């Protein structure tokens, strides 16, 4: 099994789902940025999503697509892989 954390993956969802997800993330990030001007700081508050029903459906579809593409979810060292991934992303800016 390839556990290369820098490997690129593709996810197929309907264009409607992608549009709804984009708008949810963009709007949530814009709102969050207003009260977190130093967004790269580790002391910034976590981003929270306030999703309506259609947005939750799109998130469920995304979750299902991720689950089908990530066999790492079922490995015994999954928690370690998540921590490695967080460090990798935190240092990528």
Helix content: 40-55%
Task: Count every beta strand, where a strand is a DSSP E run of 2 or more residues.
Answer: 0
Approximate shape: flat
Largest sheet: none
What fraction of the residues are assigned to beta strands by DSSP? Answer: under 5%
Number of helices: 3
Run of helices and strands: HHH
Radius of gyration using CA atoms only: 15 Å
Distance between the termini: 28 Å
* pLDDT averaged residue by residue: 89
Catalogue the unreliable spans: none
Features:
mainly alpha; single chain
Structural notes for this entry:
The protein is mostly helical. It has three helices and no strands. The protein has helices at residues 15-35, 53-69, 78-90. The longest helix is centred in the N-terminal third of the chain and has 21 residues, at 15-35. The chain is flat, with a radius of gyration of 15 Å.
Could you outline the blueprint of secondary structure elements for this entry?
Elements: H1 15-35, H2 53-69, H3 78-90
Write a short abstract of this structure.
This protein has helices spanning 15-35, 53-69, 78-90.
């Amino acid at each position: 099994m390839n556990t290369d954390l820098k490997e690129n993956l593709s996810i197929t969802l309907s264009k409607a789902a992608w549009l709804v997800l984009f708008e949810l993330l963009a709007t949530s990030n814009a709102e969050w940025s207003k009260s977190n001007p130093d967004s790269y700081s580790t002391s910034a508050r976590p981003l929270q999503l306030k999703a309506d029903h259609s947005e939750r459906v799109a998130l469920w579809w995304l979750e299902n697509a991720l689950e089908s593409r990530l066999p790492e979810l079922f490995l015994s060292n999954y928690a370690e892989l998540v921590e490695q991934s967080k460090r990798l992303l935190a240092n990528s800016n």
